[in-house]
# Entry
Amino acid sequence: MTDISIETALTTLVGVRHPLVQTGMGWVAGPRLVSAAANAGALGILASATMTTDRLRSAVREVKSRTDAPFGVNLRADAGDAAERVRIIIEEGVRVASFALAPSQELIGRLKDAGVVVIPSIGARRHAEKVAAWGADAVIVQGGEGGGHTGNVATTVLLPQVVAAVDIPVIAAGGFRDGRGLVAALAYGAAGIAMGTRFLLTSDSTVPDAVKAKYLAATVKDITVTTAVDGLPHRMLRSELVDALERSGRAASLVRAVRHAAAFRRDSGMSWAQMVRDGLAMKHGKDLTWSQVLLAANTPMLLKASMVDGRTDLGVMASGQVAGLIDDLPSCAELVDRVMAEAHTTLRTLPRTD
# Structure
């Protein structure tokens, strides 16, 4: 384990050794990956949106059995059972709560009153300003290069906007994989970087080897943004399935969405009423048809097909553009050591001014 460290507002806030975050990727960021990232000195974040509440509590306890280091849990702020998940986080003594969407002021206050650090993920400056005003402790800012649901503003444009707009630590996400990226983010004023695809492509990740091979073989041009999965922009590896989804007519898409909604209900433990409430929350403020809202069930099930079952012919592979630059599968410990060593070397080789 490297002795090289860089202290930032992030490391001080959450108590980790290094200003690195492993993001909460559905079906990927489970106890094994999260504990490996935490033991390596990064902030590991457990993905809970695809878990039942019972499974969430069990997963949190498993992480705690594997590491004494701080870690976090990511959850959907608009989920119908978000309050119950927050209760579990508080009861289990989780250090950090991460949100895929801006949480309500009430949820932020409840977590902070319990001593939990609140770090929402955002994709626009106005969202960062809103959650900062509501009491969020830090924000993860994802630029358009990031995997999964994403925007169209590049990290290099979005990050300095947010840093200038808020007085809380800002963590940069979207396009990061190494120590040079960490130094660049720090130069922009960030307190650290968050990486999803880079941690997915480690030996500690439970993603099937055949699926990892697809990522390693991809070039930057093989990674695309599509709305065919659930009506919202989603960055992923291009595949024959993605091409087929984009060619599908409305009727075929609707039939598939109903089937996947039923499957996700079984896996997540959600009732149909909860799924309808989540659909209403998703539709609010967005120009989505009801067919698109129902298509939201496609996302977790199509991801599960690849990330859990290894069926890339039946599933999609969320990916940041940075996958096109990754060609190995280090352990989390090896990755973190490498990133910090590269950052140290990069800092030493920068031109000096007198």
